[in-house]
Amino acid sequence: SQKIEQNSEALNIQEGKTATLTCNYTNYSPAYLQWYRQDPGRGPVFLLLIRENEKEKRKERLKVTFDTTLKQSLFHITASQPADSATYLCALFSGYSSASKIIFGSGTRLSIRP
Amino acid sequence: NAGVTQTPKFQVLKTGQSMTLQCAQDMNHEYMSWYRQDPGMGLRLIHYSVGAGITDQGEVPNGYNVSRSTTEDFPLRLLSAAPSQTSVYFCASSRGGSSYNEQFFGPGTRLTVL
């Protein structure tokens, strides 16, 4: 069956360091992948999208990589700040049509300590 | 521009009761969807719609009905509530006819079924 895993439930790092979150998948061939941020009691907020033919995408302090050989996406936050503390979700999409299947990971809760 | 709105924010039901969760968006998005979020399980797609008059099932549709009579509204109906439907429900929308594009999520409805 299709499976998506985010490296750990929780990740704690020191302010200023780079946070790296992992999204692994099996039995799936995603056409593209999205990363979302979710704060407690709120809906997810879109951050980045990366397509299967793209190796890397950047947006300000955020960077996403997509390795279809390793079946893995890495999400990096450089120069992390306490305000970056949140749960981060990855979502994989099987295609580009309206019938595309979407699967969300369960999320990684990131805590940045001052 | 309110984005995606959901009502109510909180709801307690007794087993067997029915109710409708409301969702509306003012961005003229064609694609709308409903998810449920349970601890450790990530977001799971219940139903989705690619435009007015068109709906389809997602991963976990049993016990839920939807309709899409207008572009703006996408209500989710619980026919006969069960404790297993205790969850946080999110509505989302995106432009175009697919979830391919950035999804905008509502603030969620926290439902408890006793």
Short description:
Chain A is mostly beta strands. Chain A has no helices and eleven strands.
Please describe what this structure looks like.
- The complex is a heterodimer of chains A (114) and B (114).
- In chain A, 0% of the residues lie in helices and 56% in strands.
- Chain A is built from no helices and eleven strands.
- In chain A, strands 2, 4, 5, 9, 10 and 11 form a six-stranded mixed beta sheet that branches. A five-stranded antiparallel beta sheet of chain A has the order 1-3-8-7-6, with no helix packed on it.
- Chain A is an all-beta fold.
- By secondary structure, chain B is an all-beta fold.
- Chain B is built from no helices and eleven strands.
- In chain B, strands 2, 4, 5, 6, 9, 10 and 11 form a seven-stranded mixed beta sheet that branches. In chain B, strands 1-3-8-7 form a four-stranded antiparallel beta sheet, with no helix packed on it.
- In chain B, a hairpin with a 2-residue loop joins β5 and β6.
- The model of chain B has no long low-confidence stretch (mean pLDDT 94).
- Chain A binds chain B through residues 4, 9, 32, 34, 36, 41-46, 49, 89, 91, 93, 96-100, 102-107, and chain B through 4, 31, 35, 40-45, 50, 56, 90, 92, 97-100, 102-108.
